[in-house]
Structures are given as C-alpha cells and as structure tokens.
Amino acid sequence: MKLLNKVAIITGAAQGMGAMHVRKFIEEGAKVAVTDINEEAAKKLADELGDSAIALKLNVSSADNWKEVVETTEKSFGPVNVLVNNAGIGIFKLLEDLTEADFRKTFEIDELGVFLGMKTVVPSMKRANGGSIVNISSVDGLVSAPTAIAYSASKHAVTGMTKGAAAELGQYNIRVNSVHPGVIESPMAEQGDVAEVIKKLEQDIPLRRRAKTEEVSNLVIYLASDDSSYSTGAQFVVDGGMISDL
Predict the structure, then answer these.
(1) How far apart are CA 70 and CA 73, in angstroms?
(2) For residue 36, which of 71, 85, 80 has the smallest C-alpha distance?
(3) Three-state SS for 19?
(4) Annotated catalytic sites, by residue?
(5) Which residues have C-beta within 8 Å of that of residue 117, sequence separation ≥ 6?
(6) I need a surface site. Which of 24, 35, 41, 204 has the fewest CB within 10 A?
(7) Are 12 and 86 in contact (CB under 8 A)?
C-alpha cells in the first residue's frame, strides 16, 4: 500500500497506459480522479473500481476545466497530493507534411495541458503540505527522430518544464519528475503507419521488446510514493535501453 492516503489526479486515464496507472494506484491504496476527454470511458473504469475512483471529463487544454477537476477532486477526497500528467497524442509526419493544425493540436494537449495541470494543482498540494507531480514525457523528450518534430517539441518542453517546476516548488515539498517511456504496448502504438514503424524499432531495442504498460506504471508509483522522497527535477527513462547508446 505505497500510496495509502494519497489523492491523485491522472489525465488521459480512460485507456492504455493511463488506465493501468489508475488500476495500480488504487491497488496501492490511493484515491484517484480518473480524468479523460472521453467521459463515458472514464466513468466505466471508475465504476468498475469502486469508491476509490471518480470519473471527471477533462480537456487538458482548458484552464477552466482544470479548475473544476481540482475542486471536485478536493471535495470528493481532500487536497490533491499526486498529479500524473499522462494525457498525450502523437502525430508523426515528415516536416513537409506536418501542418500548423497538427503542431498546434500536439502543443495544446502534450505541452499546454501539462503546464495547466501543474499550475492548477499547486494550491491544493500546498494545502496537503506537499505532493508529487509526475509528467509523462517520452524518449523523444530527450532525443528525437524523423517524423517526430511536433511530438518531440512538446515532449522536450515537458522535460524543461519539469526541471523548472521542480526548482521552484521544492520549497513547498512538492516534487516534480518526468518519465520517459520508449515503445509501449498501447493503443497509440497500434495506429496505422505508427505500428509499422514500431515493429522496426523493436529490432534495435536491447531488450528486444516493447514495454508492458504496468512496467511504466510501476515507475510512476515509485515517483508518486514517499519511496522517492529525495528525487525531484529528474528524468526517469523506461525504454529497454533504446537510447542507451545515444
């Protein structure tokens, strides 16, 4: 029960990696706000998991919606002491094919959403006398690759924001770390051309496989828990050695 008495908000939580975070968090004793743009799917998951979960619709690019989510979570469970900024999208196109709309959409979800989440949750974490913010970045937030310009730009921004927030919020006992998954078994990894690219990538991963979603969730739990009480402003890579030679 590493997360006993923790109150968490997890974004993009209705499916894939986010849903696994929710399940593992509740197994470890946390109360969780399951937030997603897909309210129906979030409600289905929360109903399955019982009284330790509530479902809330969240457009991560809306400051007003973020305020509503934090306020509702506090009313339901008390001050928030864990935020997992998990929501994200990936649009992978060659630079010449990437549109302004593609870039703006990626920015609004993958970057602006993280900024708004951190900004909005801080007063609640202060009331909780501290907390942990876990920002899901990517290996593309440390390096990059062809077709990943929009995605990599947003994920590099998450890495930078994490460092800045950690330096600023440490005085309030609020820790901020980033997690950098490589290739993960998730719905995003099965979309169209992305699936073919990932099959090729797997051949160059030292462990010769994708990560299971729970392998990322286990790291997120560590960072959310008091086990990582002296870790902040750091980048935690979970990629099977994918970028170890870069």
Answers:
(1) 5
(2) 85
(3) helix
(4) 151
(5) 9, 11, 60, 66, 83, 85, 133
(6) 204
(7) yes
Select from 180, 226, 198, 208 the least CA-distant residue to 2.
Answer: 226
pLDDT band at 175 (very low <50, low <70, confident <90, very high): very high
Task: Tell me which residue of 230, 90, 69, 211 sits closest to 147, measured CA to CA.
Answer: 90
Q: Could you give the dihedral angle defined by the CA atoms of residues 143, 148, 154 and 158, in that order, rounded to the nearest 10 degrees? A: -30
pLDDT tens digit sequence for 32-53: 999 999 999 999 999 999 999 9
Q: In what order do the strands lie in the sheet with 31-36?
A: 53-57, 31-36, 7-10, 82-85, 131-136, 174-181, 235-238
The 3-state secondary structure of 47-92, one letter per residue? HHHHHHEEEEECCCCCHHHHHHHHHHHHHHHCCCCEEEECCCCCCC
**5 half-sphere exposure, CB direction, 13 A CA radius:** 4
The helix or strand, by DSSP H or E, that contains position 8, with its residue range, turns out to be strand 7-10
Question: pTM for this one?
Answer: 0.94
DSSP-derived 3-state class of residue 95: coil
